[in-house]
């Protein structure tokens, strides 16, 4: 894609202007991303039963990169690289994929998926802190702080005291690993802003391809997966789901939202991931929704409204 293309000019204008308010289409994209990433905890839990953590992460990003390469070829999207961009993609690959995916995969060997999703919901908290320190156009606002706090509270209420009671104890290292992944995600969301002038498909493809190349020698040295038995069909299906849906297609949406709406707004998806998981359980598996889950949904909705800011402005306009 040439530097003078419409996509490049639109992305560059967005980068210069700063994050845009969330439009209905952006909220829809965020909700879809929440559904897609909601499945990643399930896929990961299935795959980690037979596949070591780093091998699972390598397989995930490699399948995602291949899927996006096929889409890019079909759409005629090219991603010209220079030394500076290649170095920046190496940094992004480490903080957006290798560190958080590896920590989450290892922690999933020890934690239930519900507790993992609660800890993952800390991502907006760290993203707000990183954005405050390293950006000029995503500083603290009262709405952001209230909204992020409400969102995290909503996830905790939704999951209930039984899961919250598992915090600490002998699984503390795994819990700290999951929290470490959210810190890395926070830095990745802010760092991703520098690619806003590039097409989301190209960014996602380059990031995942770089992650695959960096992980390959580590996996060969540490886990030597060629000694493993062939995975079962459910694990193969889970790896395909992780790679194509929860990584490849998910990152196209991710970079679209980052480019338009900034780091803090993309991090809100972690509030929607457990919501989507619970709703899918109710719709697909017939699981009953409990009152605490409805309460959690409502608190999360209030948090998202506080961050969006338009409901508060509407109320002030009516009162004025």
UniProtKB/TrEMBL annotation:
It is found in: Membrane. InterPro entries: AA-Vitamin_Transporters (IPR050638), EamA_dom (IPR000620), EmrE-like (IPR037185). Its main location: membrane. GO terms for cellular component: membrane. The chain crosses the membrane at residues 27-48, 54-73, 85-107, 113-134, 146-166, 172-191, 203-222, 234-254, 266-288, 294-312. Residues 30-159, 174-306 form the EamA domain. It comes from the Bacteria. It is a multi-pass membrane protein. The keyword Transmembrane applies. Keywords: Membrane, Transmembrane, Transmembrane helix. Pfam families: EamA (PF00892). This is Drug/metabolite transporter (DMT)-like permease.
């Amino acid at each position: 894609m040439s530097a003078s293309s419409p996509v490049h000019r639109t992305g560059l204008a967005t980068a210069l202007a700063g994050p845009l308010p969330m439009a209905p289409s952006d909220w829809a994209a965020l909700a879809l991303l929440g559904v897609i990433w909601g499945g990643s905890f399930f896929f990961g839990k299935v795959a980690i039963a037979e596949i070591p953590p780093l091998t699972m992460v390598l397989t995930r990003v490699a399948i995602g990169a291949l899927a996006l390469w096929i889409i890019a070829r079909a759409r005629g999207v090219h991603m010209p690289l220079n030394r500076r961009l290649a170095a920046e993609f190496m940094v992004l690959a480490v903080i957006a994929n290798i560190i958080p995916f590896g920590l989450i995969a290892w922690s999933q060997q020890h934690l239930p998926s519900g507790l993992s999703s609660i800890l993952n919901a800390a991502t907006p908290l760290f993203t707000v802190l990183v954005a405050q320190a390293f950006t000029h156009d995503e500083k603290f606002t009262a709405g952001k702080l209230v909204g992020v706090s409400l969102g995290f509270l909503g996830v905790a209420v939704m999951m209930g005291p039984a899961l919250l009671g598992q915090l600490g104890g002998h699984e503390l290292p795994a819990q700290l690993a999951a929290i470490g992944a959210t810190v890395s995600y926070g830095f990745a969301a802010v760092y991703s802003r520098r690619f806003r002038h590039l097409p989301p498909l190209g960014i996602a493809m380059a990031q995942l391809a770089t992650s695959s190349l960096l992980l390959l020698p580590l996996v060969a040295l540490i886990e030597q997966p060629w000694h493993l038995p062939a995975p079962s069909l459910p694990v193969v299906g889970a790896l395909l789901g992780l790679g194509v849906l929860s990584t490849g297609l998910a990152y196209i949406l991710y970079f679209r939202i980052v480019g338009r709406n900034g780091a803090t707004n993309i991090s809100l998806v972690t509030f929607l991931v457990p919501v989507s998981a619970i709703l899918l359980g109710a719709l697909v598996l017939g699981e009953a929704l409990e009152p605490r889950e409805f309460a959690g949904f409502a608190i999360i909705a209030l948090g998202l409204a506080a961050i969006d800011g338009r409901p508060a402005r509407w109320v002030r306009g009516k009162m004025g």
